[in-house]
Amino acid sequence: MTAEVVREVPARRRARLRSEITRVLSALLAPGTPCALVDFPLYANVGDSAIWSGERAVLRELGVPVAYTCDERSFRREDLLTVVPEGVILLQGGGNLGDLWPERQRFREHVIRSFPRHRIVQLPQSICFRDEENLRRARDVFDAHPDLTLLVRDRHSLQLARTHFAATSLLCPDMVFTLPTPATTGHRAHDVVWLARSDHEATGLPRPAPRGRTLHTDWADELGAAPAWRLRREAAGRRLRAAVHAVHARPGPESASAVAAAHDELAALQLTRGIDLLAGDVVVTDRLHGHLLCLLLDRPHVLLADRYDKIENTWRTWTSGWPGVRWAGSPDEAVEQARALATTAGARK
Predict the structure, then answer these.
(1) pLDDT tens, residue order, the chain (349 aa)
(2) pTM of the full predicted structure?
(3) What is d(CA 296, CA 61) in angstroms, rounded to the nearest whole number?
């Protein structure tokens, strides 16, 4: 296989995934359909900000106007009803449908209960319930809504959705695949970037001792942020607070648009920080969006399992066999796989 063909393979796969997202959403959302996009990720997880940016990109492409956005703190039922009295409510995609992140699920259920007359579309999610009572409560809320559609981003979640919920459920790739190829400086600050979960979704396996120019990090808690980036994020946060105050005082298209612009700015800042963190010749990660952003960047990388198989379920559904990607069964194996990828990448330069 020639180098030109190797480079074309990822581009074709990305185009297919993007086309599949467009196909699924265009069947649900006609151009001009007024929408609310609910549950902006007002926290440091880069992956959720990347999803938000992808959602906004594909909705613009489809000609679907987002008239209202909110995060959990800024949400008010009366504001959404004023700005989007009829239309579709879109729930933010990600990996929190279930009880791994109960605050996100509680908010999702609250929104679904609060708007029985709106059509609601859950954008692509992974599903994981550990407790039967939490699943029963979610089923009661979901099944009571007359027009709910669940989009899920892997086959395992699709099976769960169709087993447990009456709502229409459809398979759809993660919204990150609608992003353009991220711009980078081309500078590689590290030989290996080891991006590993530091939350309760981590497996807890010990990481190998750093060798050479290896960065061990996570993108939670705004790790890796430069002082100039923090100043920009603080300024964007001030703009968001002012916009939210305005929409609460007088909800309408203009004030809601200012909130959406601030949300978009914050998401773009987090995405930029995440891309900068991935500046290694090779990446090792157990974060799903570490994997997906590396695909967009054509960055060689090694995958490790997370605790609840989120990354493996997506990999098996959409991304297995992708050039420049290896699966490792342990951290020690990941070191060897990363070394092999680095050697291969060096030979191609």
Answers:
(1) 334 434 447 889 999 999 999 999 999 999 999 999 999 999 999 999 999 999 999 999 999 999 999 999 999 999 999 999 999 999 999 999 999 999 999 999 999 999 999 999 999 999 999 999 999 999 999 999 999 999 999 999 999 999 999 999 999 999 999 998 887 766 677 899 999 999 999 998 888 776 678 899 999 888 778 999 999 999 999 999 999 999 999 999 999 999 999 999 999 999 999 999 999 999 999 999 999 999 999 999 999 999 999 999 999 999 999 999 999 999 999 999 999 998 776 545 4
(2) 0.94
(3) 19
Picking from 195, 259, 272, 183, the residue whose alpha carbon sits closest to that of residue 233 is: 272
The bridge status of strand 35-38 relative to strand 88-91 is parallel
The domain tally of the chain equals 1
What range defines the domain where residue 71 resides? Answer: 3-178
Q: Is residue 309 included in any domain, yes or no? A: no
* CATH number reported for the structural domain that contains residue 112 in this entry: 3.40.50
d(CA 22, CA 37): 17
Residue 98 tokens, joined: 């279930």
Residue 309, Ramachandran bin (φ over 0: left; ψ between -120 and 50: alpha; else beta): left
The residue with tokens 């729930």 is: 91
**Residues 343 and 319 sit within 8 Å (Cβ to Cβ):** no
Residue 194 lies in a domain: no
The arrangement of strands across the sheet holding 325-327 comes to 214-217, 190-195, 280-285, 301-303, 325-327
Alpha helices in 37-178 (DSSP H): 46-61, 77-83, 102-114, 132-144, 155-164
Q: How far is CA 194 from CA 63, 135, 144, in A?
A: 39, 34, 44
Cβ atoms of residues 341 and 282 within 8 Å: yes
Beta bridge mates, 36: 68, 89
